[in-house]
Automatic annotation (TrEMBL):
GO terms for cellular component: membrane. SMART domains: PKS_KR. This is Ketoreductase domain-containing protein. The keyword Transmembrane does not apply. One of its GO terms (biological process) is bile acid metabolic process. Belongs to the short-chain dehydrogenases/reductases (SDR) family. It comes from Planifilum fimeticola. Gene3D superfamilies: NAD(P)-binding Rossmann-like Domain. It comes from the Bacteria.
Length: 275
């Protein structure tokens, strides 16, 4: 297999970092993108390959300049993995408008900017692959995740539309993980929404990274873990019943939290990534 140039955003930690490691092991050339320069430099030294490009995906001019530089130095961009993102827990009216805008700018529009900059080069080269890291929160809404869910719903819709427009020349896959053990959500979940059983079953970022790499060769909408899939299918087939059940479970958990139930309290573990 020939060496592919793979551009990865959000590569300084978590899922992006594990994706970079897997790419290096496969013999690909990872182009690592994140806002912080030092973690990227350290990662390229660890990998012994690749290139680091500090860049803020919310800055359109910087994104365009980055893509042009990679094209000039590498000749082509074979794969784009849009992984940059962050989120906050909080009620729909509790989260400041600035955080709504910030999550949309990074989680959704950051991917759009990078994609729009890369696609012309992929078309010129005769094809390419795009993998967008979304979330199960982008497939079904959850209390205290309105702002984050909205950004991921947008990313999934963009991904599916893009694949229909450009397939088979450019294929687009989208990965929708459940909660992951990564430094993502900033600070403790103030609502303590997640039940303890979920908090104890966070996905390993290495597992998520492995699935992301798999989407390069087999693009599709993929939910991880698959145990989430039946509930999502049930939601589509029986939306009213699903909403009633989800609302009842949330209300029960909220009441336990108010009463000081230790099971509810134990879910105060920091949930780092909802993907």
């Amino acid at each position: 297999m020939k060496e592919r140039t793979v551009l990865v955003t959000g590569a300084s930690s978590g899922i992006g970092k594990e994706i970079a490691r897997l790419l290096a092991r496969r013999g690909d050339f990872p182009v690592l993108v994140a806002r912080r320069a030092e973690p990227l430099r350290e990662l390229t030294e660890e990998l012994g390959t690749g290139a680091a490009y500090p860049c803020d995906v919310t800055d359109g001019e910087s994104v365009q300049a980055l893509v042009e530089e990679v094209k000039q130095t590498r000749g082509r961009i074979d794969v784009l993995i849009n992984n940059a993102g962050y989120g906050f827990f909080g009620g729909a009216l509790d989260i400041p408008m600035s955080d709504y805008e910030g999550m949309l700018q990074t989680n959704y529009l950051g991917a759009v900017r990078m994609t729009r900059a890369v696609i012309p080069h992929m078309l010129e080269a005769g094809g390419g692959r795009i993998v967008n890291i979304a979330s199960v929160a982008g497939l079904t809404g959850s209390p205290n995740l309105a702002a984050y869910s909205a950004s991921k719903f947008a990313l999934i819709g963009f991904s599916e539309s893009l694949d229909l427009e450009y397939a088979p020349v450019i294929r687009v896959g989208v990965l929708c993980p459940g909660p992951v053990q990564t430094p993502f959500f900033r600070g403790e979940d103030p609502s303590r929404f997640f039940p303890a059983p979920i908090a104890k079953r966070l996905l390993d970022p290495k597992t998520v990274a492995r699935h992301a790499i798999g989407l390069i060769d087999r693009p599709r909408v993929l939910v991880v873990p698959r145990t989430f899939a039946p509930a999502l299918v049930f939601r589509v087939l029986f939306p009213r019943i699903y909403r009633k059940i989800a609302k009842k479970l949330y209300d029960q958990h909220f009441q336990r939290q108010k009463s000081g139930d230790p099971v509810a309290e134990s879910s105060s573990t920091t949930i780092e990534k909802m993907k």
